[in-house]
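Page 37, top half.
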Amino acid sequence: MPPTPQRDLSAPTIVIGAGPHGLAAAALLNRSGERTVILERSYGVGASWAQRYDHLRLHTTPGTSKLPGLPVPRRAGPWVSRDDYVRYLERYVAHHRLDVRVTTPVQRIERAEPGSGAQWLVHTPVGPVPTGAVVVATGRCHTPDLPRWPGRSTFTGTLLHSAHYRSPAPYRGQDVLVVGAGNSGTEIASVLAGNGAGRVWIAVRTPPNILPRSSARWHVAGRLTEALPLAWRDRTSLLTQRLAVPDLTSRGLPRPRTGLYTRNAREGVNPVLDHGFVDAVRSGRVEPVAAVQAFEGPEVVLADGTRLRPDTVIAATGYRPNLHDLVGSLGVLDEAGHPLATGARTHPAAPRLYLTGFTNPLTGVLRQAGIEARAIARAFRREKARATLPAPGSATARPTHSTKSARRADGASEAWPFCRRSRQGDRTPR
């Protein structure tokens, strides 16, 4: 259904995406006196969460999952469910009185004409919207990433991405191959094995770093050890895993050789929190196998030459941000399509264009939403402070107490490392 015309969409700032990062940014910008409008392509807030599988629960505690200005309700429990978190996001909109325009997708962003009074034009199906600043919060998990395996189109079974998996019920009695040993893949495999599926295999390319679910407060350890050498943190994490997680090598899942901190820095990958996966592998209910190499009719060919005949293949192979259509012409993306600058930093080629929610830090994605939102709000306040400073050499150019405070705040926030190393290892603007 196309979006229906609504009242004027223009605002001094437009936020694209009504997920946690977009909502947090809009809330803090509004609190700073910057009126914002949030444009959301779907029918409600938190759509990417609402569309995930039914048994999804957050891997972070409520204290590290809250957004600025509103705690997660205690009744949601220590591991917040998908539906409870969507309800929390809806309450967040009401609590902060955010202006969210649903069913309003953004097609592209382009620079406004000089002298038009606007910095950007945000193109929507109902026309271009002029604005002074844009916050892109469409997220790193925008589009399912399904590998182009050779022979994929010849597969006679069912092939789907984990984004389209909802519950184990349709797969009772079926042999299922789950591809990918991240948090989604391991959780889906163990739930399938415990709810009536036939054989359940999980294709593993790189052995994951696994931690007990009770150790989810490793996010705190991530924050406390950020200043320590990477090699030291890796050795400590590998030792922790050896002590906390049994050796599954005999079951086809060897211990990882790379520490979780290095994997996060290089690939943006977080450790797997065990939701019953370890027991499912130890008992043989989930069978680790080699990575998928190709499809040939009803068979899946693995990297070690093994051939499987699953009824269904569920590809838990991750997502991509898919920013090319939106901002690809602005020079703000690297060759892989990832932002060159994120958080409060803007690319020199695109002032007042902020991209938030495109990192996967060990300290927690939802906690990062608040960090980046605060930084963006500070950047707006600094910009306003600079705009009110008198011209150099004028009689009123002597610094006042307020401008000195603004400069101190400016310097403090400049030191915060919001842009991290990209997935390809290139240094992003700092």
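Page 37, bottom half:
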Amino acid sequence: MSTVRKVGIVGWGAIGRVVGTALAEGRVGGAELVCVVDNRPLGEAAPARQATFEEALEACDLIVEAAGQGVVREWGERVLESGTDLLIASTGALTDEDLAKRMLAAGPGRVYFTSGAVGGLDLLQAARFLGPLDEVRLTTTKLPSTLEQPWMDEELLARMRSATGPVVVMTGTAREIPVKFPKSTNVAASVALAVGDLDTVRVQVVADPAAHHTRHVIEASGAHGAYRFEVAHLPDPGNPATSQVVPYAVLRSLAALAGQTGQIL
């Protein structure tokens, strides 16, 4: 008989609530919600006991990060060194190459990443084995309000707020963009993880007042072929910076880690 994965969720927000509720209702066979870690008192809002991070490491064999890049930076290595596996939703933290190297080298716990709001990453990883991808471009389009950041000057903010059509907010590499938009561009880091190179992935962030769906377009090419993936998601009503589909990508990953048959890996 297979072992049931004992799961702790870090973060009880737009992602954590959906994932935790599904686990508590038994909708992921082979995985059980043991506890929730959050810096706010949740009371009866969570369907499992609220625990400290240390308690979660003792009680769980798999931690799901659903609370932002800061958690990955602060706790990622400690989770893995304790022997607990870690499933990361906030892949943007891994644009810090030193952190990425330490995380990938840490153990005995294993680190995994969700595909999040995009598809095609499995195919890009497969294509990588054929040979390097010469050009990879990601264009992310979101509502202007979800892209506003403290570092923006008044001129840029005014352009975004008064826009009647698409406005290019920033262009750069997958190394640069997630640092500037920590809650909105995990997709850029995920594409870079699939491709294996932060600097190969060129990213354009677009604000569009008509972007009722968050849109990601990935275009990649190399000597062996060309690839294009486009997705458009409804934003999560509780957290418009996150697409509604993201917690379900986490649940798909959990099902695979729990050993469910029929999973596309």
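Margin note: DSSP finds ten helices and eleven strands in the chain.
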